Amino acid sequence: MSREVKIGNVSIGGGNKIAIQSMLNIKTSRVDDCVSKIEQLSSIGCDVIRVSVKDEDDALALKEIKKKISIPLVADIHFNYKYALTAIDGGVDKIRINPGNIGGDDKVAEVARALKQNGVAVRVGSNSGSVEKSLLEKYGKNEISLAESALKNVAVLEKFGVENIVISAKASSVPLTVKTYRYLSEKTNYPLHVGVTEAGTCDMGIVKSSIGIGSLLLDGIGDTIRVSLTADPTEEIYAAKRILRSVGLDKNFVEVISCPTCGRTEYDSIGLAKRVEELTAGITKPLKIAVMGCVVNGPGESADCDLGIAGGGGVCAFFKQGKVYKKVKFEDAEKEFLKELQDIVNK
């Protein structure tokens, strides 16, 4: 089990629940726009939010943003150690830096002192495009060089007494990402921030992230996750929640199971499944609802469902825990089923 690290009011590692993260794509100096977006992301399940610090205006804006939000704020900083100091002074809960690109030991030492004095966490790591030449020459371009690059950055901070550390080591390649985190999990007990970097737009990005993040979570690896998409950050949160649910790490939701349909389907089960999913999307009650095309995939394959429907012969059969309790004509089935669903949700 990884050690616990506190990021503001969220604790990761140490057996705590997996924290969902995202990052704004708005310039940080636009305080009101950032706060509005953070509030939206928080309302749909974002636990930790990261913002970029490109210049002094961004660094100074962090203090105002922090005052107006309720979830932990992470400042993403590269190349200028002074922005890190300003961010810490402004009350951020974590900074994202790589010691190697903010200056020499004297500058790293100054940032380290500020981190320790203010109880601020730090995320360090590597990605497949930033591995040091010496490590590439020694190990080649693989999971060992990528992981050892991250650990090298960790060692720099440890030298100055920093221990409130989270590690990441991402690649755009799913197999490389998975191998790297498996390697890291054997080498360190710091919490791991897991994700597939540069995963792409929603369609491919969600597939790559689901395979990479999901594989690691099923191995018990990962303490906080970000689904990196070239899309609105809300899509990252929805995808992350679905991943956690799919691997069994979030059970407080309505799971809708539905068959792929075939030539035996006689009613609009595809449309009904979509409507059921939409109606139950924001409900945090652990329920399982089945929308099946016909009796072949009906009560038998969804015997553990709280409510289900299957059609055939002009009628839809309603069932609970695999037992049929009601039959309704096709034309009335959707209305009646949605009413039954509402009753279960409100129970």
Spell out the key features of this protein:
11 helices; TIM Barrel; 15 strands; eight-stranded parallel beta sheet; 2 domains; single chain; five-stranded mixed beta sheet; Sulfite Reductase Hemoprotein, domain 1; 347 residues; alpha/beta
What does this structure look like?
The chain has helices spanning 31-43, 56-68, 81-89, 105-118, 133-139, 143-159, 174-187, 202-218, 233-246, 269-280, 330-346; strands at residues 5-7, 10-12, 19-23, 48-53, 73-77, 94-96, 121-127, 165-170, 193-194, 224-226, 254-258, 287-292, 307-312, 315-320, 323-329. It has 11 helices and 15 strands. It folds into 2 domains: 5-246, TIM Barrel (Alpha-Beta Barrel), CATH 3.20.20.20; 254-346, Sulfite Reductase Hemoprotein, domain 1. The mean pLDDT is 94. Helix 4 (105-118) links the parallel strand 6 and strand 7 (121-127). Helix 1 (31-43) crosses helix 2. It is elongated, with a radius of gyration of 24 Å. 43% of the residues are buried. It is α/β, with parallel strands linked by helices and 347 residues long. The strands form 3 sheets. The protein has an 8-stranded parallel beta sheet. Strands 11-12-13-14-15 form a 5-stranded mixed beta sheet, with helices on one face.
Strands, count: 15
Q: What is the C-level CATH assignment of the largest domain?
A: Alpha Beta
* Count of individual domains: 2
**What does the oligomeric state look like here?**
single chain
Compute the average pLDDT: 94
The third-level CATH topology of the largest domain is TIM Barrel
Query: Helix fraction?
Result: 40-55%
- In percent terms, what proportion of residues is strand? 15-25%
Spatial sequence of strands, sheet with the most strands = 8-7-6-5-4-3-10-9
